[in-house]
Specification:
Distance between the termini: 167 Å
Order of helices and strands: H
Helix content: over 70%
Length: about 120
């Protein structure tokens, strides 16, 4: 009976040691998972910062392109207005030249008939 009690006590001690080892292993696993989660969180944080930087750069590029587009549109409109004015001036000069030709032609014809 004493030997059975000693054996049972030994088994209880072995189970207790096994339970302690299991608890220690669980604690190590939990620390490893927490460390892994922190590592993944840090990696995601770094990727997020990079994505934010890229988004900011893209936003700045878009704003520059929009500003340039506005400038180009204004320059084009001003150029078109300038060309319209040049066409109108050329048309007026053409009309004056035609009127002058008509007057000179009349004058030439009158002088020609006066000379005859």
């Amino acid at each position: 009976a004493v030997s059975r009690a000693a054996a049972a006590q030994g088994e209880v001690a072995a189970v207790s040691r096994a339970a302690a080892a299991f608890a220690e292993a669980e604690a190590v696993r939990a620390r490893a998972e927490a460390e892994d989660a922190r590592g993944r969180c840090a990696a995601l944080s770094s990727q997020l910062a990079e994505a934010c930087s890229l988004a900011s750069d893209a936003n700045a590029a878009r704003r520059q392109a929009e500003a340039r587009l506005g400038t180009v549109a204004a320059e084009r409109a001003a150029g078109e207005e300038e060309l319209r004015a040049a066409v109108a001036a050329a048309a007026a000069a053409e009309a004056e030249a035609k009127a002058a030709v008509a007057l000179l032609s009349d004058e030439y014809c009158r002088r020609g008939s006066d000379d005859a």
